[in-house]
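A reminder from the course coordinator: this example appears on the midterm review sheet, so study it carefully.

Given structure:
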């Protein structure tokens, strides 16, 4: 109340001072204007009065006296006085208002100056304007004629201005006070109260309360900061509870905090650098705005939590159309946006380099070479030359970043940079370098068709550590090296020795960020019902299964659709009751093999839908676009099962992401035996995607599986993913790197 009163008084005083200043200026201007007009009118009337009426009468006193009375009234004079000399006054019109007789000095001044004089004087009823006209006569003494005009109306006008402005000031002050109080109440006090509620929610780590009300636009930056604090505090509280539970249960589960502490011990202030082709964040233009998004990538999904936990530097190709506008002079930017937990350095490659290095050698050569999916690899010399050049470009960037660093840790990602480890180690032998191969490694005969097999192997063996998802891929790699290079393969230690260089080869099954707090998290908001999700696409069905893949010939999408078709043929009772939803992200569509795959997947879905669809229902819903994790989550949660039919896959994190979303411990995972995840996820229904009958039978088994069995199986799968999470993966790799030269 005191604040409101003080605010009102302050507004009244402020508005009053402003109004006073403007009114004073207005009155000064108005008075000057009125005085000027009065003077001009008085002089004009006086001169005209004299010319028309006095001059022709030769100023004879008796005649003047007889006619001046009526004539003066016609000109609105209050009085007209004739002075023969200073001590002799003849009233031509007796004044109705007593007039102060001008002193001899004033008349002498007018007569001596032979000039008319004007002034304001006081009469009996108010102000009068006095105009003294001097008349010179031949051989006669001069006379002075004084005209008196009412000037009191000027004071009345000025007073009315004061009153009007006072009234306006009062009304304005009142209105401004009311409006200001409303604005303060709605625009300041309510947001302040909201901020107080946000801070309270942040202190309590209550993110759900923060999300109940949307922020005002001007409070949005503060809201984001407070939300970040709430998330951090909630995570800290959850981690504290988690650590307490881990100590109680004696479970050695890896968490971001545990990884951070482990890295402190291992790195000892040495720099950690991750190198990949795909960047974790890209900046793109949407209209006039620049937005930061996370591109779809299993590798990014796995590595990003590690950098957030440990900090360091991530070097990757800039691919967003606004990437150059968001980096500093050193091509760096702090990420994630608003958190700044690690640094991203962007490398710029030309369109020509992208065509040959990325689309050419990497994805038309190495990708089909390593994936046994019956697609012939293509090798061109020009593609290889650009592959070498881009690897050199990345090596120069890494060497620049580690200049002056002692024994930095460098983790190279995937098949795009097979040459990079050797390029780094040749110039910095003290650096600890590992390369993780995210895709399968084929048998020696298959890999031997590559014209630059030895160069690729020597490049990879420049690393201290080569990692794959499975032991099977490690064995294939060692057999390839054994048959292609002059080297010693130490099978008992899974290592390769070339000269004095020793490289270890180990399996590191990659995973996702899933910890005990996620495993034991209470169920969030009620999940969307399957019928409601399908209704959005005009489909009426009781349940659905889900598949989430890039549209890639290695993912077995047509094989998946054939299995769904066979399932409906064997179990027609599910027609109209069940739909299979496939979320497919278009990938590398500039390559013919990929565009052909997209066309084939489209055609197969259309064929099956045309064959089986009924009014308001279809067997397959193909959602062919990029989806964020938030968009996919409702499908993961509401699906009866997840179908992964990779024809050849390094790991496949979709299987683990599906498991992580099943907070109710229900649902079934159907998993290809050719995915690396099949080696870890015991309890999933393992299928051969080429076996249409077997895959159809697995779909039926998943739909008919008793709830008790689902609970038992999914509970075990979730605990497996928790124990072998991405933090455990990172700790295993980095500890292995540290131990090699330790």
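Designed residues:
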């Amino acid at each position: 109340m005191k604040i409101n009163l003080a605010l009102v008084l302050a507004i009244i005083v402020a508005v009053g001072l402003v109004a006073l200043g403007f009114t004073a200026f207005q009155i000064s201007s108005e008075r000057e204007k009125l005085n000027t007009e009065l003077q001009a009118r008085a002089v004009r009337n006086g001169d005209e009065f004299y010319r028309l009426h006095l001059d022709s009468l030769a100023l004879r006193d008796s005649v003047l006296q007889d006619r001046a009375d009526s004539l003066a009234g016609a000109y609105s004079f209050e009085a007209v006085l004739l002075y023969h000399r200073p001590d002799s006054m003849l009233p031509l019109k007796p004044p109705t208002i007593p007039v102060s007789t001008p002193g001899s000095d004033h008349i002498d001044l007018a007569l001596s100056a032979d000039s008319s004089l004007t002034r304001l004087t006081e009469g009996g009823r108010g102000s009068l304007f006095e105009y003294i006209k001097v008349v010179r006569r031949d051989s006669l003494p001069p006379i002075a004629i004084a005209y008196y005009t009412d000037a009191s109306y000027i004071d009345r006008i000025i007073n009315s201005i004061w009153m009007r402005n006072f009234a306006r000031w009062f009304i304005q002050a009142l209105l401004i006070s009311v409006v200001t109080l409303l604005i303060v109440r709605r625009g300041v006090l309510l947001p302040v109260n909201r901020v107080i509620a946000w801070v309270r929610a942040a202190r309590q780590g209550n993110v759900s309360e923060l999300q109940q009300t949307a922020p005002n636009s001007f409070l949005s930056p503060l809201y984001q900061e407070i939300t970040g604090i709430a998330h951090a505090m909630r995570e800290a509280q959850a981690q504290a509870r988690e650590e307490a539970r881990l100590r109680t249960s004696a479970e050695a589960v890896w968490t971001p905090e545990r990884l951070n502490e482990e890295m402190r011990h291992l790195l000892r202030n040495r720099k950690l650098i991750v190198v990949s082709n795909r960047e974790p964040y890209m900046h793109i233009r949407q209209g006039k705005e620049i937005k930061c998004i996370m591109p779809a990538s299993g590798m990014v999904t796995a590595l990003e939590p590690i950098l957030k936990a440990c900090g360091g530097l991530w070097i990757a190709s800039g691919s967003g159309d606004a990437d150059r506008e968001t980096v500093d002079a050193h091509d760096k930017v702090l990420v994630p946006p608003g958190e700044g937990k690690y640094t991203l350095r962007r490398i710029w490659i030309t369109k020509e380099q992208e065509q040959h290095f990325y689309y050419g050698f990497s994805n038309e050569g190495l990708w089909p070479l390593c994936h046994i999916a019956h697609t012939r690899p293509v090798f061109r010399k020009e593609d290889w030359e650009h592959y070498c050049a881009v690897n050199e470009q990345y090596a120069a960037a890494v060497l620049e970043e580690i200049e002056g660093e002692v024994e930095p840790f460098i983790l190279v990602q995937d098949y795009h940079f097979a040459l990079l480890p050797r390029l780094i180690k040749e110039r910095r032998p003290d650096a600890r370098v590992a390369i993780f191969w995210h895709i399968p490694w084929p048998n020696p005969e298959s890999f031997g068709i590559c014209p630059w097999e030895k160069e690729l192997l020597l490049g990879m063996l420049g690393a201290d550590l080569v990692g794959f998802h499975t032991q099977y891929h490690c064995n294939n790699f060692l057999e390839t090296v054994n048959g292609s290079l002059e080297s010693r393969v130490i099978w008992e230690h899974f290592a390769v020795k070339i000269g004095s260089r020793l490289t270890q080869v180990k399996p590191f099954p990659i995973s996702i960020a899933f910890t005990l707090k996620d495993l034991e998290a209470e169920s969030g908001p009620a999940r969307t019902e399957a019928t409601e999700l399908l209704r959005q696409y005009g489909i009426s069905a009781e349940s659905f299964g889900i598949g989430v893949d890039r549209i890639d010939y290695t993912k077995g999408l047509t094989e998946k659709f054939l299995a769904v078709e066979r399932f409906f043929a064997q179990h027609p009772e599910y027609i109209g009751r069940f739909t299979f939803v496939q979320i497919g992200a278009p990938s590398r569509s500039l390559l013919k093999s990929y565009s052909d795959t997209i066309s084939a997947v489209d055609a197969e879905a259309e064929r099956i839908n045309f064959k089986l669809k009924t009014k308001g229902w279809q067997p397959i819903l193909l959602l062919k676009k990029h989806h964020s994790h938030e968009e996919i989550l409702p499908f993961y949660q509401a699906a009866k099962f997840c179908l992964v039919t990779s024809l050849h896959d390094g790991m496949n994190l979709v299987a683990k992401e599906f498991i992580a979303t099943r907070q109710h411990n229900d649902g079934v995972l159907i998993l290809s035996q050719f995915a690396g995840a099949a080696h870890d996820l015991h309890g999933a229904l393992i299928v051969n995607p080429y076996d249409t009958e077997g895959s159809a039978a697995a779909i039926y088994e998943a739909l008919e599986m008793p709830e008790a069995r689902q609970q038992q199986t999914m509970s075990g799968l979730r605990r497996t993913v928790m124990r072998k999470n991405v933090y455990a993966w990172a700790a295993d790799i980095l500890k292995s790197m540290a131990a090699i030269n330790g």
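Residues 482 and 489 are 6 Å apart (CA to CA). The radius of gyration is 47 Å.
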